[in-house]
């Protein structure tokens, strides 16, 4: 039997025995499917390719410790890509310049009614989560994100130290990241 005829699980078993050819075969077999999956969620070929590369790099690095039962290895890889996508989008929220890209990624132009509902739901969740931030934290976050003001400018206008502004931004990002990760899990997957 040639290596191309092996199942995904058989390839995994060979990968766990340091078979680089089996790894390459698995990569060639599944890369495109995983890429398309990531691309639909990220909207960027470069980001999708990076996510899939990270998943395969992690697979190789952890090949000796992986314990996957049954024939759900492909599902395992799709789950790994899903969580990398969620982390990628959450990381984008840390950068105000990428906020518009996040909105475009999470809230794409939609073609059917169910996507319209998901889009509106995510917009609502984001607005609610921003509104649920404590007063000063919300004010700092909105000045930074919506008005693109610098930390120094915000600190001066609100009579706060720059460190306090940075702390408030960090806490706001953590809270919003956590909330959006949960929302994305339910809406997109």
UniProtKB/TrEMBL annotation:
InterPro entries according to UniProt: RNA_pol_sigma-70-like, RNA_pol_sigma-70_dom, RNA_pol_sigma70_r2, RNA_pol_sigma70_r4_t2, RNA_pol_sigma_r2, RNA_pol_sigma_r3/r4-like, WH-like_DNA-bd_sf
Gene3D superfamilies on file: 1.10.1740.10, Winged helix-like DNA-binding domain superfamily/Winged helix DNA-binding domain
Keywords assigned by UniProt, alphabetized: Sigma factor, Transcription, Transcription regulation
Signal peptide span: none
Keyword Ribosomal protein in annotation: no
Keyword Transcription regulation: yes
Pfam short name (any one): Sigma70_r4_2
Family: Belongs to the sigma-70 factor family. ECF subfamily.
Protein name, entry field: RNA polymerase sigma-70 factor (ECF subfamily)
The organism of origin for this protein: Chitinophaga japonensis
């Amino acid at each position: 039997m040639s290596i191309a005829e092996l199942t995904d699980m058989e390839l995994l078993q060979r990968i766990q025995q340091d078979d680089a050819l089996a790894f390459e075969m698995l990569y060639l077999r599944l890369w495109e499917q995983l890429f398309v999956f990531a691309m639909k969620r990220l909207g960027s070929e470069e980001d999708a390719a990076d996510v899939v590369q990270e998943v395969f790099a992690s697979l190789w690095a952890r090949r000796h410790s992986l314990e996957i039962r049954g024939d759900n290895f492909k599902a395992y890889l799709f789950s790994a890509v899903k969580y990398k996508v969620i982390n990628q989008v959450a990381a984008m929220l840390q950068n105000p310049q990428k906020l518009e890209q996040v909105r475009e990624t999470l809230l794409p132009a939609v073609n059917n009614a169910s996507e319209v509902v998901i889009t509106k739901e995510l917009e609502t969740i984001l607005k609610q989560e921003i509104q649920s931030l404590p007063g000063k934290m919300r004010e700092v976050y909105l000045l930074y994100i919506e008005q693109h003001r610098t930390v120094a400018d915000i600190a001066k206008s609100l009579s706060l130290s720059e460190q306090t502004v940075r702390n408030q931004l960090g806490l706001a990002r953590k809270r919003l990241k956590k909330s959006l990760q949960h929302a994305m899990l339910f809406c997109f997957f």
